[in-house]
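Hi there,

I know you've been waiting on this one. I reran it after we fixed the sequence typo, so this is the corrected version. Both the input and the resulting structure follow.
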Amino acid sequence: MRWQLDVVNDWGAVDSEMQFVHRRCGASIPRQVGKSDTVVEWVSYMAAELGYGVLYTAHNYDTTCEMLRRFRNIFGSRANDPTASHPRYNRMVAKCENSTAQEAIFFRSGGFICFSTRTKSAKLGYSFDVIVYDEAQELTTEHVQIISATTTSGKNDNPQELYLGTPKRPGSFGNVFGPMRDEAHGSPEDDLCWWEWGISEVGDIADESRWLEVNPSLADGVANIASLRMNCRKFMKLGDEGVLAFAQEFLGYWLPGNRSEPPEIDAAAWDALAVDNPPTEGRAVLAFKFAPDGSEGAVVACRRPKGGKPHVECVAIRSMSGGLGWFVDFAVARVDRYAGFVIDGGGNAQEMTDRLLGARVPEHAIARPTTAQMCAACAGLLSDVADGSFTHYGQPDFDKAAKGVKKRPIGKSGYGFEGIDGADALPVEAAALALWGIDEIKRDPDRKLRCG
């Protein structure tokens, strides 16, 4: 279709040295327009003809399987496949990998296409020239951090990333596609191209004249208008939520306020927990939380006075450029004053634990939360804020952090926190762990051993 040619011409634009002009290519396209066909054509050409390594990655396994089916329909399921629908294209195939979760097509050109549902370790051992992030509205920073590194050693030295999706849904953990759209609508860098079809307000979703404005395949006479009508009737029966869902999925409507998502912690509720005179007596623990990329660490203390509410204070937020030494020394110097230490954050957490044990810190003074416990601690923090179940000191940096976080997915169904618009979520997660640790760690540093 004409619109698909326009999009692919942008994707394929090169400079005088045959390098991609657009390294990042985003497209917010409603459903039933033909986005997937455009991807299939581009990826097939890049891999089968030009010898590029391509990773196709989607959020949902079903989507990955459907895209794999489309490519097999073109190239067949193996080299020299007698059942291939297109023998001409099957002759381009060198071999196929059909093992579950390792599906790939390798071509005589030297190119290949790998298929992967996004996980925390998706295709870490591979190098790619082109990455396709389908269902980009669900893409998170964690996914990009892991997958994007695979383009640094692509054999063609000409990387490109495609971000393809629909507007972000309410409650989604995705935090990459929206900011990219904001950049495109604001002051985009030269390496970004962005295509978008969508309505600016929900309005009357049954007005078919509006459908033509946001579905270029209808204008080309290709899209199935009967299917759109069926879906429109179905969603309208679901009330306001259904109307919004149809507007987002089929008419490309972006929720207002996407540029600055509402924080998870209500500012007024957080401020109501502040006290001028923090407790100085009672059992206390320290929580150490390290950033996943090892850039910084946060320390938060929690003290529970007898008969009172737990009280939290941010002790420090420090760069990790000097290593773990400061954090280890800080903990060792306080082992006789605190019940124990909660430590979390990948390799740094393990190394700190080992160094504390080496410094003769009692093993039962150290708590290493599991993923489930981390999720429970963060959920507990939100409940405690709503219930007014703890206090804090009203520290400006701590307050700013607490008022600027949203949920980030952890594990299968839990969550932690991440910052919005540059806010630092690390001390907030440390606070959640400190509140968890005051109940989890039973050690009493004042208890003395009595003999005889």
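Quick highlight: The chain has a mean pLDDT of 90.

Best,
R. S.
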